[in-house]
Amino acid sequence: EVRTISKRVSLIIKLRPYMIIKVLTLNNRKHGHAKCHLLAIDILTKKKFKHIIPSSHNCDLFHMSCINFQFIDIFENRFLFFFIVNGITKDNLCLSIDKACLCI
Prior knowledge:
By secondary structure, the chain is mainly beta. About 0% of the residues lie in helices and about 55% in strands.
């Protein structure tokens, strides 16, 4: 439920990944639920976003993890070849070019 969210939690809001930076819960009024005001930053674009949602609603959390790797080569079909930390090689990551920035 939304009322259990704290800062630094990653959520999906309107199909976008956000990191919560501030949570404000307002008590319920005469008609309706208590509301949560979420201030979040889009993880991909770094833009701030305000979202108001009833505190009893469910939300989609996600877990991010970082993997260190060593880039080796790029193939003609835009697939990358790299080593992961434990020595495993991967070559199934496609490189797409979108608006003059590289998205992996």
